[in-house]
Amino acid sequence: MKKIEFKTTIAATPKKVWDTMLAPNTYKEWVKAGWPGSDYKGKWAKDEKIRFVGDGQGGTLAIIEEFKPYETILARHIAVLNADGSEDYNSEIAKGWVGTLERYTFSESKGKTTLTVGIETNPDWEKMFQDGWPAALNALKEISEK
To answer: What is the 3-state secondary structure (H, E, C) of 31-67?
Structure first.
């Protein structure tokens, strides 16, 4: 697995950034900058499953392993979702996703929040993250600072 990291500093409280990042309507707004049509289904809470999906494209299934409001989220991808919504745990594509991690850390200093996104991924998916996260974080910053 390859570890990569992205950071942004946002002129807002961790609560505001957290709420903007996770609320269904604003999630769709900021995430489309990196992955148009992306959304999630599920509940952001410890031990809950979240389905990250794209318009008719499938997606991934993750479990929230760590959830500390306004501080950190750790999601472990456990399956690939096919376009029909079925869960794939065993294909070659799934083997490249299963076990990958995403950690979101929120830290506050002087009225600003630094959001760090840490990804542990198969190197085959690194370009997708390198292309998507900077744009998505910039959009999240803009929305959170309104």
So the answer is: HCCCCCCCEEEECCCCCCEEEEEECCCEEEEEEEEEE
User: Which CATH number goes with the domain that contains 87?
Assistant: 3.30.530.20
State the residue range of the domain holding 109: 2-144
Most distant pair of Cα atoms in the chain: their distance: 47
| Alpha carbon distances (Å) from 54 to 15, 38, 102, 106, 110 | 27, 4, 18, 26, 37
pLDDT tens-digit readout, 2-33:
999 999 999 999 999 999 999 999 999 999 99
Which residues lie below 8 Å from residue 41, measured CB to CB, with a gap of 6+? Answer: 50, 51, 53
Which residue matches tokens 């031990």? 47
Residue 121: count of CB within 10 angstroms of its CB: 20
